[in-house]
Design a protein that fits this description.
This protein is mainly α and 105 residues long. Helices cover 79% and strands 0% of the residues.
Length: 105
Amino acid sequence: MSEILEKLNAVLKDRKNKESEDSYVASLYSGGIEKVCSKIEEESKELIHALQNEDDDRIVSEAADLWFHSLVALSMKNLSSNDILLELERRFGISGHEEKKTRNT
């Protein structure tokens, strides 16, 4: 499954050099981080609604939309799914309560 994330990373990198008229992702890049954050907020609300009211197919669809827009935002900050996977791997074997105590926020 990680090959899907690698393919997405490659597509996102490629779209940084495309015209916004040619690509939805390129149009997100040209809109800046504010545009992508707005999409993440929208997709988050849609996922919450789906979780509370919709069937599994709709939930998965909305979760995919949220993941996708999150990956676009990460790529705008020169981060990728690999960075998230490394962080999740780092957290294995650590209590969630303990991990939260170590955060700087």
